[in-house]
Specification:
heterodimer, A: 446 residues, mainly alpha, two-stranded antiparallel ribbon, 70% helix, 6% strand, elongated, B: 258 residues, alpha/beta, 6-stranded mixed sheet, 4-stranded antiparallel sheet, 10 helices, 10 strands, 36% helix, disordered N terminus
Chain lengths: 446, 258
């Protein structure tokens, strides 16, 4: 009876374990799969003629002759639209005043929507914003914008609430010279845009143009690397020295116990508090930089990850067999030599793991850098400017782009591209940690 | 089997020497003179203070918190626990081999060269000579000469213990302390270590703590019997094992307790 019960409990526990792991894996998939599938869209997508025009105009990439030839092909499809515009304008002048008053604003809307879709009309004044100089660069967006030309979005209100209704514009302009515009956009959109599978790996390194409407996330990636590497540069030496002190030099007593609990408490402090502290201490009190800077952000992040580094290093040092230490001491090595030549090398795999995991954490943290380092306008920071200049960074700019940007809906591909890139950077760091650890451990084992 | 080596005087001498762990006295007022150039075995049941005594000679007990010593322990006439003693220098002169083989997770070469590198800036070929000599003295050279730069953790237990011996010999100590050096080894490896001890006798003063009375009888010239922190009897090994003066010694060596 007892035996049966024990076996049953064993099995129940195993089942619970499987369940927990399964739920975790499911959550992970649920988060990661969309991030990656949509994030890939920033790098691989169906790019239109306008994308190639933008690439040549803004980055000087692509073959001008081929683009010119393509532009000529595209012009054949687009020309009827502009001809219809001109014809309708004349027709409008001949119309009775009441009908003219009705159609003129609608015509203006159509012209604006077409400019959004195809880019500025030939011969028109060059727009001030770069985003208006080109039409839709991505086929997916182009089709949405084409619908905006074809249908007018209105809202129908009733007792139950409101409902979105799409009214075809073609009916409004039926019988006028503008009518062919709608049929040709519906029919020839592909010829007008010429979508083609486009691989854009330099999304990772390009600077962004006009608040991320075009270009890539290079400055953000570089900023993230600056901040996490800088944080490690500060946190690793401090953390390892502190861990060595705790493990090898400190005599257990109330002071050490207090310091230890301080470190543990520090690990539990919310990251936004670190951000505010960084602003108050590094920028306002120490004045390490005139304002936000990579330096201030890296210092703040260093504080944030310091407890993790200390604890990982302490555990790694504590796991070094006592016999190594005794062996070194018995040969006449002092405490310092013992630590430097025997204990640290043996503890290295554990310490490395702690470091790289902390680095992943530093790369992903948002709150600590909001007040100390991050700006939303993506200027690439040169290595010589890290002491004074603020930087964009993936974590913060992702948040900013998702919540505070003027065109949140249109830039989904950039948002997901950033998220996927950030996740990939962190995953790559963790993978590097695992490989490095295995390598060093193998060297130690022989 | 082995001739009586000439007694060249006392190398380590304890005078009313005690070691305490906190309040507990682990070694009580021991008077013991370890002769130079001979092998002295220290036997006794577990917890009798024999290892503690041995580890006092090179002050390895310093690593244990709350451990303190009283009385005198003279090494070459100088008090080991004197205030001016530099433990690094002391431990270079007093080599030690531990119960469990503890090679560092480094190459065989680096293990042996560890001590010399600590104490002097040696030229490369000088270091090579020291490493080879030490490994030859520890009877390990022939087995490892082709793989000096592989990791020492790949050695068998007996080889690792001989490597530890070579590592201790490489700093050219005056005395070798062995703390149950064969208790973790199989009989064959044990026999090799015992052979080595006999070979090294005369060149170094050797103090060996052992649980194995046959071992003490085989390799040592003098034997000290410790019991509950006290030195009960200290005499020539032959005498102690054949005509013990004390009843407790006789009880122990005949296996009535321990």
């Amino acid at each position: 009876m007892r035996l049966k019960l024990r076996k049953l409990m064993d099995r129940a526990l195993t089942a619970c374990g499987y369940l927990a792991v399964g739920v975790m894996a499911l959550f992970l998939l649920w988060v990661l799969v969309p991030v990656f599938t949509k994030g890939v869209g920033a790098y691989v997508f169906r790019g239109t003629m306008e994308h190639r025009r933008m690439m040549l105009g803004e980055f000087g990439r692509g073959d001008p002759d081929r683009l010119r030839a393509e532009a000529a092909d595209v012009w054949r499809a687009r020309e009827p639209i502009y001809k219809a515009f001109a014809a309708f304008e004349q027709e409008l002048d001949a119309m009775p005043a009441s009908r003219r008053r009705e159609l003129r604003p609608a015509f203006r809307d159509v012209r604006e929507d077409v400019a959004v879709l195809l880019g500025p009309e030939p011969g028109a004044q060059l727009p001030a914003l770069t985003r208006r100089m080109y039409g839709q660069t991505r086929w997916q967006e182009a089709r949405k914008k084409a619908n905006a030309v074809l249908f007018e979005e209105t809202w129908e209100y009733n007792d139950a609430g409101s409902r979105r209704v799409l009214v075809p514009r073609a009916t409004q302009f039926e019988g006028t010279a503008l009518a062919p515009v709608f049929t040709s956009i519906e029919r020839d959109l592909e010829a007008m845009m010429r979508p083609r599978l486009t691989v854009y790996p330099r999304f990772l390194t390009d600077h962004s143009i006009d608040a991320h409407f075009f270009g890539g996330i290079g400055p953000e990636v570089v900023g993230t690397l600056y901040l996490s590497l800088g944080a490690m540069l500060v946190a690793v030496p401090l953390g390892i020295v502190a861990a060595i002190y705790f493990q090898e030099y400190a005599k257990e007593g109330p002071v050490i116990a207090f310091l230890r609990s301080c470190v543990n408490t520090l690990a539990g402090v919310p990251s936004v508090v670190f951000g505010l502290f960084g602003l108050a201490f590094f920028i306002n009190t120490l004045r390490v930089s005139p304002g936000k800077s990579v330096l201030a952000g890296a210092l703040t992040l260093a504080l944030l990850v310091l407890p993790t580094v200390i604890r990982a290093s302490e555990e790694a040092i504590a796991a070094v067999p006592r016999a190594y230490k005794e062996g070194a001491m018995a040969l006449g090595a002092g405490r310092f030599r013992t630590v430097a030549t025997v204990i640290l090398p043996a503890a290295l795999p554990g310490i490395l793991t702690g470091i790289v995991i902390s680095m992943g954490r530093a790369a992903g943290e948002t709150a600590p850098i909001i007040f100390t380092a991050a700006v939303s306008v993506g200027q690439l920071v040169k290595p010589s400017e890290v002491l004074t200049q603020p930087t964009p960074a993936l974590s913060w700019n992702l948040y900013n782009l998702c919540t505070e940007h003027e065109a949140v809906e249109e830039l989904r591909h950039v948002q997901f591209g950033m998220a996927a890139t950030l996740v990939l950077i962190v995953l790559a760091l963790n993978l590097a940690a695992i490989l490095l650890r295995a390598r060093v451990a193998r060297q130690l084992k022989g | 089997m082995k001739e009586e080596a000439k007694d060249e005087g006392v190398h380590v001498e304890a005078r009313g020497f005690s070691v305490f762990y906190g309040e507990q006295e682990a070694v009580c007022k021991v008077d013991l003179a370890i002769p130079r150039g001979l092998v002295t075995a220290i036997i006794g049941p577990s917890g009798c203070g024999k290892s503690t005594f041995l580890r006092a000679v090179n002050r390895m007990n310093d690593l244990i918190p709350d451990c303190r010593a009283a009385g005198e322990l003279l090494f070459d006439g100088q008090n080991v626990y004197g205030p001016e003693v530099d433990t690094a220098v002391l431990r270079r002169r007093v080599g030690m081999v531990f119960q469990k083989p503890n090679p560092f997770p480094k190459s065989i070469y680096d293990n042996v060269a560890y001590g010399p590198r600590l104490h002097a800036r040696c030229a490369r070929d000088e270091l090579d000579t020291i490493v080879e000599e030490s490994l030859v003295n520890a009877a390990l050279w022939d087995e490892v000469k082709d793989r000096l730069h592989t990791n020492a953790l790949g050695l068998s237990g007996g080889q690792a213990q001989r490597l530890c011996l070579a590592r201790a010999l490489a700093v050219n100590p005056e005395i070798l302390l062995m703390d149950e050096p064969t208790s973790a080894l199989d009989p064959k490896a044990t026999a090799r270590i015992e052979e080595l001890i006999v070979q090294l006798r005369g060149r170094y003063t050797i103090a060996i703590v052992t649980h194995n009375m046959q071992q003490a009888a085989r390799v040592s010239d003098r034997t000290a019997f410790f019991y509950e922190g006290n030195l009960i009897e200290f005499d020539a090994t032959k005498t102690l094992f054949t005509r013990p003066r004390e009843q407790r010694t006789e009880d122990y060596i005949t296996g009535r307790f321990g």
